[in-house]
Design goal:
Blueprint: H1 6-12, H2 17-37, E1 44-47, H3 57-70, E2 74-77, H4 83-93
Parallel strand pairs: 1-2
């Protein structure tokens, strides 16, 4: 619900100091999230995706400034997929998975839901073990 106000707030940012502060804080939080997961190596790539980026320059300008300060070694590139595809890739490659395998469906005797639970309908989904494949939105 709160995200639905974002375009209105961003639209006021050029003439309202409170709105400008809210947008700058949002940019700082997005850049902070990127900095938390971005490798420290020179030439690292950062891809941003999500509905808030559709706000345009009121958010993108302070976001570029924040990224330049927090990640001077990284380059921003277009996202290869939508937010869901990115979340799937992070989950797939996250170190220390429960069993170390690359499956999204697990059997459990302890009553825990296998990875993939929470998908629509609450069912786990399995795949061939080759990993998720990001799809471009559109």
């Amino acid at each position: 619900m709160l995200a639905s106000f974002a375009p209105e707030v961003a639209g006021c940012a050029d003439r309202d100091p409170v709105a400008a502060h809210v947008v700058e804080e949002a940019a700082a939080h997005i850049a902070g999230s990127a900095a938390a997961v971005c490798p420290a190596a020179e030439g690292s790539l950062v891809a941003l995706t999500g509905g808030l980026l559709g706000i345009g320059e009121p958010l993108l300008a302070p976001l570029r400034r924040e990224l330049a300060v927090r990640l001077p070694h990284a380059r921003t590139v277009p996202a290869a997929g939508d937010p869901l595809a990115g979340a799937l890739l992070v989950a797939y490659y996250w170190p220390g998975t429960r069993c170390g395998c690359r499956r999204t469906r697990h059997s459990s005797t302890s009553g825990e839901a296998g990875a993939g639970a929470g998908t629509p309908g609450g069912t786990a989904r399995s795949h061939s073990g080759t990993g998720p494949s990001p799809r471009r939105a559109g």
